[in-house]
Amino acid sequence: VKVERGGSITYHGPGQLVQYYIINLKERGTNVRDLITKIHDCTITLLSEFNLAGRSELGKETGVWIGSRKIASTGLAVHEFTTLHGSALNVTTDLKKFSRINPCGFDSDIMTSLQAEVKNRIDFRSVKKRLSIIISERLSI
């Protein structure tokens, strides 16, 4: 399905924590770049709670990365100052599902998940709850 947002082809499925942001940038006094930075910072904060060093380099590589592996993808569109779409964090995602595409224009082997990185079973609901709290605090929503 073709959509109007940043980024290239991606996969959404079980084990992904998808966040859909509907934010009026004008009312918030912000811009898309700053919002994406804040969204990525929320994910990076969550990853740090698992002793993982996440990074984001807007303009170079989209999304959030752990070393050379991509753990979260972000794609936003803006219509009349309001954002659409959002970000997806691979928590317990079956990474084989990426093998039939080039996610965000990259080779599928670069994709990772929280569970793959910590090499332990992850409770999806706990991660969902914690990321929700971080987003609420950081974005004041």
UniProtKB/TrEMBL annotation:
Enzyme Commission (EC) number: 2.3.1.181
InterPro entries on file: aa-tRNA-synth_II/BPL/LPL (IPR045864), BPL_LPL_catalytic (IPR004143), Octanoyltransferase (IPR000544), Octanoyltransferase_CS (IPR020605)
Gene Ontology MF term list: ligase activity; lipoyl(octanoyl) transferase activity
Gene Ontology biological process terms, A to Z: protein lipoylation
Keyword Transferase annotated: yes
SUPFAM superfamilies membership: Class II aaRS and biotin synthetases (SSF55681)
Record domain BPL/LPL catalytic: where: 1-141
Class of this enzyme: transferase
Keywords: Acyltransferase, Ligase, Transferase
Pfam family, any one: LplA-B_cat
Keyword Transferase (UniProt): yes
Biochemical pathway: Protein modification; protein lipoylation via endogenous pathway; protein N(6)-(lipoyl)lysine from octanoyl-[acyl-carrier-protein]: step 1/2
Protein's name in the database: lipoyl(octanoyl) transferase
Organism: mine drainage metagenome
